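A quick aside before the break. I want you to see a complete sequence-to-structure record at least once, exactly as it would be stored in a machine-readable document. Don't worry about memorizing anything.
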Amino acid sequence: MGINRRVFLMTTLMTGFTTAVARAQTAPIHTDAEGLDAGQAQIPVADGRLPAYYARPAGAGPFPTILVIEEIFGVHEYIQDVCRRLAKLGYLAVAPELYARLGDPGKYTDPNEIVANIISKAPDATMLSDLDGTAAWAAANRGDPQRLGVTGFCRGGRDAWLYAEHNPKLKAAVAWYGPVKGPVSTIQPHTPTDEAAALRCPLLGLYGGKDGSINPADVQYAAQVARDAGHIVQIHMFPEAGHGFHADYRATYNKDAAEQGWAEAVAWFKAHGVA
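That is the input. The structure line, written in tokens, reads:
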């Protein structure tokens, strides 16, 4: 691939946690890498190489694979820990830094600045192509392409919807509080709702009933559009949880919803052939 045709602004991942949100009062979960092969990778894509974090069990594999899509804050320690948690369950989990061309989300302390300077400038077509490239990397690095899933958080939940509407090789998807509506542009032309009838795999959506940024009725409508087209969608609203309830490093963390949602996500992947 033409890896020298573009200068990527990020060639390695950020360290630690984002500083763009209020931190939780308790220490975040830390999953060790004992028994795992984990670290940074370079994912070949159409115009270069994306830095990524991966974790998989030690051994030859092939392992069922889950693509992990970041929040707007980058592939920071929380996303890396999610990969290790999945690897402890037997998965090859890989999280590409999808914003590497545009800037380092870790340099910002204001989420609105991340959205304005990075997120709004990220073409969806590039995101989908990058995830295809990540799936190909996984298949070449002890992943099983016949057992492929995707999960994403916040903006990554939105992207998980879109990727589940794009890739027919996916077996299952889990979207954590992913917006299904929002502004569109020439580079981000569709919302998940727009493409819901084209869903390619069963999708589980995990949402907070106190999430002021996502209308529950919008989520249920997107799910119904997909169901009306013959697809499998399940939505779980956690009534006491807000946005970002799984992110244990954030003040929005809700332990009960996070643990129940995680159990449901793991069960979803197993039930639909990603295990």
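Two observations worth writing down. The beta strands are 36-45, 48-57, 63-69, 92-96, 143-153, 172-176, 203-208, 233-238. The chain has one domain: 36-271. We'll return to this after the break.
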